[in-house]
Amino acid sequence: MKNVVSGCSVEEAMNMIGGRWRLLIVSYLLEKPKRFSELRRDIPAISQRMLTMDLRALEEAGLVQRTVFAEVPVKVIYNLTPDGLRLEKVINVVQELGLWLKGRHVDAEC
Amino acid sequence: MKNVVSGCSVEEAMNMIGGRWRLLIVSYLLEKPKRFSELRRDIPAISQRMLTMDLRALEEAGLVQRTVFAEVPVKVIYNLTPDGLRLEKVINVVQELGLWLKGRHVDAEC
């Protein structure tokens, strides 16, 4: 039973943060609230469509808040909610793992 | 520069452990070395093809070792390498996140 429960938790979490970009997006939002275009600059490899979809999923999960400012042109800012800030701990260990993985080979892609 | 480096580490790590199943497979291999069929029982939702591909990727990354025993029928065992055991820390925080995500809603899928 214990294993079913713990495996299920991993699955639940990976449904939310698995995938190539979501954790990366959150890591850039940890720096400060950002506009869509800033996130695009942070992650040049992501397509506009994927960034839109991932931001929407994070918003629906209550991890990211999207605020529209009635300016001309309209300004939209994305920031982490208090719930979203809980991902910092995950990002830290994943970053550590990434550094170690990169250290193992010289042909890192980024 | 710091942000480029840290973002890159997240990307590097997610290339390896992102996706729906890999971390889950590793979490079940943390229990003990297992046969392919045992992993299939642990994760009923994964297809044979995906499990094969993910195990191969983990093996190529040096995180999982595949050992063939010359018995009849042939026995194949998968176990984590010392490098693969480093993923335990990641699994622990991801599991914690999953438990918390599940706690937020009652319609958890697993």
Automatic annotation (TrEMBL), chains A, B:
This is Transcriptional regulator. Residues 8-106 form the HTH hxlR-type domain. It holds the Pfam family HxlR. InterPro entries: ArsR-like_HTH (IPR011991), HTH_HxlR (IPR002577), WH-like_DNA-bd_sf (IPR036388), WH_DNA-bd_sf (IPR036390). PROSITE patterns: HTH_HXLR. It comes from the Bacteria. Keywords: DNA-binding, Transcription, Transcription regulation. Gene3D superfamilies: Winged helix-like DNA-binding domain superfamily/Winged helix DNA-binding domain (1.10.10.10).
